From TrEMBL:
<feature type="compositionally biased region" description="Polar residues">
    <location>
        <begin position="46"/>
        <end position="63"/>
    </location>
</feature>
<dbReference type="InterPro" id="IPR038763">
    <property type="entry name" value="DHH_sf"/>
</dbReference>
<feature type="compositionally biased region" description="Low complexity">
    <location>
        <begin position="9"/>
        <end position="20"/>
    </location>
</feature>
<feature type="region of interest" description="Disordered">
    <location>
        <begin position="1"/>
        <end position="63"/>
    </location>
</feature>
<dbReference type="InterPro" id="IPR051319">
    <property type="entry name" value="Oligoribo/pAp-PDE_c-di-AMP_PDE"/>
</dbReference>
<protein>
    <submittedName>
        <fullName>Phosphoesterase RecJ domain protein</fullName>
    </submittedName>
</protein>
Amino acid sequence: MPLNSFKQLNSLPSTSNSESSVEEVEIDMGSAVATQEPSLAPLSGDSGTQPVGRNNNGSSTTSKVEALRQVLERHQHERHLVLLQDFPDPDALSSAWAYQLIAQQYDLQCDIVYAGTLSHQENIALVKLTGLPAQRLPVQTAKSKDLSGYKGYVLVDNQGTTSQLLSLVLEAGLPLISVIDHHSLQGELKPEFADIRPNVRATATILTQYLQTGLLVLDSSVGQHVKCATALMHGLRSDTSSLMQAQEEDFQAAGFLSRFYDYQLLKAVLQTNRSKRVMDVIERSLKNRIVQNNFSIAGVGYLRYDDRDAIPQAADFLVTEENVHTAVVYGIVHDEDEELEVVIGSLRTTKLTLDPDEFLKEAFGQDNQGRFFGGGRSGAGGFEIPMGFLSGSNEISAYAKMKWEVFDAQIKQKLQRLVNPQDSPIQTE
């Protein structure tokens, strides 16, 4: 296939898809065949802040790759679970796929699973058009699933705090093999291998560096390689706001992937239309928003589980308003299958001095197990707060309205303590 250029890449529609979800997709998981040796992109140089190709503790990418290689060799012929966040985005999906293909080189089988459901139109297209091998594993199904055939689990683009499946994996006694992520450290982890780099804009960048160093030699004549490279390019673009927030490492990764990805396939993924339900949630966010000190805060009420990804899309829309640098959108998501409700929210910001991870952790704190309800990366973040005893029982509309008003007021209060400590959103008189 012809080589693609950055001109083509930047001509693609802009997208922002940071917290999305995936339907179950079954595909034939064949082994990847490597026949072409790619040249390595430079892994040294002065980026102005941190050496290119180095992670946040200073060890080189080369040493990380060698450490991962040793771990994979130790676990040859095994079967592992790759856990994604409940609502995986393109960065998580593509990175997990790349990890799976790398692991296959060591006769190590990886099953990519998540507990959520697909609702973001771009993720539907990504999974269907590329045949991306991610499988939905609802919690109730996982509880009855025999996990004894797995010898360990892997976390990609998350650290377990956003996966309902983590507790089940821990109950099964599976050891943590690897953690590969670009979010800030969420808690104490003890994996055999860890590569956590908050300074890198996308986990897809980290996985692409692994490919550059030869853990898997991409071949543009192998369809599975081309599709995975296309998915990685989508994940990289999505988490860097179409490369506008990209750093040198991300550009190097995009340059490498440009030799393998399918421009027309990526264009098809990005040109999917918003559903009517998404447009309705965006309309609700516009009607309900409160703008204060350049923050736009909007509660959108109750949403079906399948419409959960309308929340980050509404936040993407609100942050484009004049005189707004940060948007927070949230709602109560009802999962009928699991009979639970969760307050889910998304944050988007263009303010360089606002750290979404610190902001959300300070706003919402952590549970009694020390896990933060919220977190983020550069420019974006999200939070998820279980409603526990108050879940469900919405048959009486007056009760459902009252419950929403209480949670809506509590979320606004916590946010506005940081947005404007002088004001209180709750009137007690």
